[in-house]
């Protein structure tokens, strides 16, 4: 990605959607922080309750639906931060943007945050925005990535800053879908892939009341599936695109599994929710 990472450990998107807590989060020994998902306009997200804790499974189910204060608010925050480390900014589309105008949302997102971002993540894998995951396939994916790579080149020509473009993928892709996606990402020279977002597969959840709640599962029940996706992806991209492994990392062992599967970097979210800052300290001790 051409970025000077001090280590492999990052905070995954969705914990600080609006960039309100970047300097506080930077007090933990993260090597990089990803904020967002941010959409062009502010939006409230889905009605509450929309986030469920499954302590027995050490999992979460969420259907937040990109609740966020929009680009202008995020940028106000970015202008104020002291943090000088690697900052990823994760962008998405508004819920009320029709599918045939979604690429415009990503373009607006890219243009607006590129001056502040070390890298930009296209979130096309949240299960909680209708139609979003369609952008992981075929023509839609090709059109989206082509448009964003053009924008990246345009920004580079104007500002002489290359902002790596990262794509965040779902753990629910079939092997065939993953293979055709990898072919497009290789062809378009995407700079990084985050594997994975949350899963809509609730079969590994033992809390049967919670399992009925619609939304994406994160945490321990996601761990093996996300590692499997990293393995498959790693065989497909053959080190030509770095992989950021994410999903159910709760220990050094879990992190090493992601690295052994082919990830170069890792991100955590649910592990921090269940184990607190001590997990970050522990993980940061592995190099
Ligand atoms: C409450 C919650 C909100 C999330 N919001 C986002 C988001 O806005 N954008 C995104 O790309 N991923 C989002 N995620 C997914 C996480 O970044 C991560 O990919 C996923 O939770 C798997 O990692 P984990 O098992 O360590 O939590 C969210 C996850 C949770 C639990």
What does it look like?
The chain is an alpha/beta fold and 287 residues long. Helix content is 37%, strand content 17%. Helix 3 packs parallel to helix 4, helix 4 (138-159) runs parallel beside helix 5 (175-187) and helix 7 packs parallel to helix 8 (252-261). The mean pLDDT is 96. The chain has one domain (9-284): Aldolase class I (TIM Barrel), CATH 3.20.20.70. The protein has an 8-stranded parallel β-barrel with strand order 1-2-5-6-7-8-10-11, surrounded by 6 helices. It has a 3-stranded antiparallel sheet with strand order 3-4-9, with no helix packed on it. It has 10 helices and 11 strands. The structure holds flavin mononucleotide.
In short:
This protein has 287 residues and is an alpha/beta fold.
Q: Could you name the key traits of this structure?
A:
287 residues, alpha/beta, eight-stranded parallel β-barrel, three-stranded antiparallel β-sheet, 37% helix
